[in-house]
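Course assignment 3, question 2. Fill in each field.
Student: A.L.
Task: Predict the tertiary structure for the chain below.
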Amino acid sequence: MTDVDVMLISEVLGVPVRKLYMLSSDRVPRKKRSGSYSNYHQSVIYTGKAKKKRVLTVPNGFLKLVQRRILDRCLSKLPISEYATAYRKGVSVRDNAACHSGADFIIKLDISGFFDSINDDAVYMVMKQFRLSPRATSLITHLCVHRGVLPQGAPTSPYIANLVMKHFDDSIGAWCRERNITYTRYCDDMTFSGSRDDLLDSHVVGRVSRKLYSMGFELNREKTVFAGRSQRQTVTGLVVNEKPDLPREKRRELRQEVYYCLKYGVREHLSRLCSGDTPLHYINGLIGRIAYGLQQRPDDIKLRESFENLKELREKEAQNEEKGN
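Answer field:
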C-alpha cells in the first residue's frame, strides 16, 4: 500500500508515484530500444581568463522539470537566513557587495567543495521540515540528490544549500552583529567587514572554521583574503572601497574586446584568440557580460556605446549565418 504522504507529493508535483521513484534512483534504467539512459549527465564549462574547468552534474529534462516544481511549490515556502544573499529573488551581487562598501577592513572566506560537501543526510534534515512520513521525506530527498550529494547543476541545489546553511548563517550573523561586524554569505563566499580591531580581536576565521568543520565543511585557505582600506577591496567581483563598482581592468577588457570585434571582425578576432567558438555565440556571451557591467554602471557611456555596437554586429552575424557564410 502506497504511503499517504508519498501520494501527496505525487499530487503536488503532478507526477505519478512510479515515475517519481524512477527519477529518484541513481541506477541507470533500461530503455527497450535505445540502450540505457541516466537521470543526470556531466557538463563541463570553462570560466575566467584561466579557463578554469568546472564540472556540472545536470539532470535530464524530465527530472529538471520535477525539481523546478519542488523548488517552486515546496522549497520556496521555507525561509532562508537574511545573511544569505545568493539565489534569492530581489537580491543581486551588487546588493551583497553594498553591505561591505566603505569598510575599514574586510575578511573573505571560501568554503571548499561547497555543493559536494552537502550530503543526503543534510538534505534529509531540510526535508523533515515538511513533516512528512519518513518514506515520503526520503523520496523528496532523493529527487534532489545524486550519488549522495547535491548535484551542482540541479535547479533545487542552490536553495537547498541556503536552507542547509540557515542555522550557520543565523548563528554567525548574530555573533558578528554583537561585535559590530557585518556578515553576508553569497553561495560559498563569506564576507566579514568592520573595523580592523573588531575583526582581528574576535578571531572570526577560527570561529567560522570550527563551526563549518562541525557541519562537514572546510575552508579553502588559499582563498582567504584580508584587505584594509588602503588596499583594493573586492566582494563578489565588485570593488567596494567606496561603492560597488566594476573593476577598472574588467571595464578595459570589455571595451578592448568590442574594439577588436569592430576593427578586425568577429571571425578574425576569434582566430587571433585561437578560439573554436562561433561568432554569434561569442557575441551573445560578450553582450551578456556588458549587460552585467551596465547593471553595475548604468551611466557608463562607453559601455553603453559598446552594447549598442555589439547589438548591430549581432544582427549582421545572424544574417551571415542564415546565408551560410
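Instructor remarks: Residues 301-323 form the longest helix (23 residues). The first strand starts at residue 40 and ends at 47.
Grade: pending
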